[in-house]
Amino acid sequence: MAGEFGEVLRRLRTAAGLTQEELAERSEVSVRTIRGLETGKRTNPRMTTVQRLAEELALRPREREELLRAAVRRDQDGEQPAEPSTEAGAGVEAGARAGVGAGPGTEADADPTRSPTDDGPGDPPAPPPPSTALHPATEPHPPSDPAEQLAALVTARWQREEEQRQVQDPFPLPVRWETAPEALTDHWANILRLPAQATAHPLDLDGELGEIAAAYRRIPSRRLVVLGRSGSGKTILALRFVLDHLRTRGTSEPVPVIFSIGAWNPTTITLRDWLAAQLTRDHPGYAARGRGRESLAAELVESGRILPVLDGFDEIADGLRRPALEALNATTLPLVLTSRPAEYAAAVAETDVLTAAAAIRLTDLTLDDLAAYLPRTTRKPGREDPDANAWDPVLTALREQPRDRPDSPLATVLKTPLMVALARTIYSDTPDHDPACLLDTERFGSPEKLEDHLLDNFIPTVYRHRLHGSSSGGSHPGFDADRARHWLGYLAHHLTGLKTPDLAWWRLGNGLRRSTRTLVTAVLLALAIGLVDGAISFGVNGRVTGALLDASVVGLLAGLMFGFVHWLTYTAKGKQAAPSAVRLQLRRRPGATVWTAGPRLVIGTLGGAVFGSAYGFVVGMVITYAVTSDLSIIVHVGLVDGLVYGSVFGVATGLTFCLLGLLETPLDIDSAVNPRSLLTTNRGTVTTQLLVWAPTFGAVVGFGSGVAVDVFQGSVGPLVWTSEAAALLGVISGLGGAIGYALTLTAWGQWLVLTRIWLPLTGRLPWAVVTFLEDAYQRGVLRQAGAVYQFRHARLQQHLARHHRRAALHDDFIAPL
């Protein structure tokens, strides 16, 4: 098999139009090594060498896979000591077999007398990578293939989420399904991909939770619709599908990724673009440029290496489900789609079923399921009779219910995993709560009343106990249940208004009116810049009156200017500042980004010139008005100052933006995020931007103002400018411009202004917002979906939002949106 690798390498090199010498020069692998590999004289190249050759040959994904597979076959046939595989469950195993996870030093340290890329028969093989089955994201050298790395990240994320949701405690509730009605399923000939005139026999897709991945693989079209009523376990089934599919996935199969489709607006963005954007949001490193001009995320989606698991079709806004289904039918992507039956059936009635998709329908839990599950969830310590159980009277009463009568409200409610989980939390985990009260048909005369009771008591129950510590490792402050309900109600109402299930920290301020967001931003920005200007002016001149006057003028003008920029950039367009997918590296730049410095230079220059002209015109008029009331002189000075300031600020802004663009580098590809880490990363990026912006912008403004005065001296009239004035302008402009940019045009700045200051100040959210969200996640109120939180279930979100609206009608303390 040694000859196979050499043949593949030679064929791919020839197709790329490269000689052995040219490839050696590009890859820094010796000509002797390449010649030995192609002739079969060298049979054990290190995988770093293989990967370097693949990079410089600019191979397409399939060609790259072919080359790596040939290397793997050589290992497996014994010509090079094989590395033991590690069971990672999601493509990590394939990466380990290929040797891409070798520990540090295995190349250069193998033989100190040899070049790291000079392979030979005497080279020892690289040691196997450490096992990272449970935490693949921490692997020192992750797989070079972006799809394989994504598989490892997805596995780690959903394993943690499954643990957090206590899916396996004490064991998963049984989720079963049956084949959906024919009216909601496409023609079986289309599903089975049969040729014309062939006879189609329907598949029997009935199964249970642990069989979902196998059932999906039996569908030739690889398109499946999962239908189930509210709380029936669709999301848990999607989670289990992803983990099981990844565990048995081959390297050529796409990576299943869960997307909350309720946030998709098919009238404004295509499905593929939306998938790429969501993938970048949760994995910022995939914003880096791939082989072509597109990002890695877009390339993975376009090349079919992503298997979308679209959870929550029913959560798409009313009126958008039909275009969403039409958009899904316009693609041939393999996918899994979950929905409540009524919403999906309504969309089907308006257009058509999901093309080539089989459909299954989740069934209800049985009394035997409850009898097997609920007794094992109660606390055992301290029980006088170990055989006694708080759920025994309830289960006995349900069993004794006459079969010829309609089900009791409790029997109806406990048919869905969601309500069983709520009942378990309220009654199994709390000793002083007796589940026998649920049998009271006078108090709970209908299933709706009983469900409201469980939803009402869920929040007080989970907030009864103090958590030992936060996810960040610090001490946990604890939150009052009533205040937590109020804050959670505001968040639920906020999401309802935005028509999305995603609770993103950078969009928390969007629940405010647009005018309020702009006004708050402008006022707080004016105060911040005014304080900076006043402090510097007082430190230089030592006069309180002059400092207060200068601070008032500069702060007011800066607030108006930056407020207008914020309104023009975001508010008027109905957009929000999104988290940056890059970081700034001051020492070196290891990789190219999808942004270039040239456009930033042009945009920055034009924007700075407009801002500087307006700023100079207003400042010149205000200062001149304090000396004379002659309108012609006031306007003339304003125009001259506008010309000078516009030139200076245009050059300074353009150069600073250009420098920031040159320093940007993509985040690491393994930078899968949670809400806190994304916030921390963006705060670090903005801090670095401030450290670059302030001195650069200030120095250019200070030096450029003197140059501009010399250039325009005489042509627009005599100009008076001192070095002290230039230095003062540079310092104030550098700090003020940096503050204005950060608070106005960055996601972290808007988070600071609106979510960390304004919303807590008005009582809508706590001051420790991130800690509160993490606390709610640990208590099971929220769930984590990559970079955002979501409520545990849409029913809980709707219940809290409804409670919040009712309270707002009677409590003046709660400010309406």
How would you describe the overall organization of this protein?
By secondary structure, the chain is mainly α. It contains 29 helices and 11 strands. It has a 7-stranded mixed beta sheet with strand order 2-1-7-3-6-5-4. Strands 8-9 form a two-stranded antiparallel sheet. Strand 5 (306-311), helix 13 (321-329) and strand 6 (335-339) form a beta-alpha-beta unit. The N and C termini lie far apart (69 Å).
Radius of gyration: 32 Å
Largest sheet: 7 strands, mixed
Number of helices: 29
Category from helices, strands and their pairing: mainly alpha
DSSP strand (E) fraction?
A: 5-15%
Spans of at least 5 consecutive residues with low confidence: 74-143, 471-475, 588-595, 812-817
What is the strand arrangement across the widest sheet?
2-1-7-3-6-5-4
> What do the pLDDT scores average to?
80
Q: Got a strand count?
A: 11
Terminal CA distance reads: 69 Å
Shape: globular
Oligomer status: single chain
What fraction, in percent, of the residue positions are helical? Answer: 40-55%
Keywords:
single chain; 817 residues; mainly alpha; 7-stranded mixed sheet; two-stranded antiparallel ribbon; 29 helices; globular; disordered C terminus
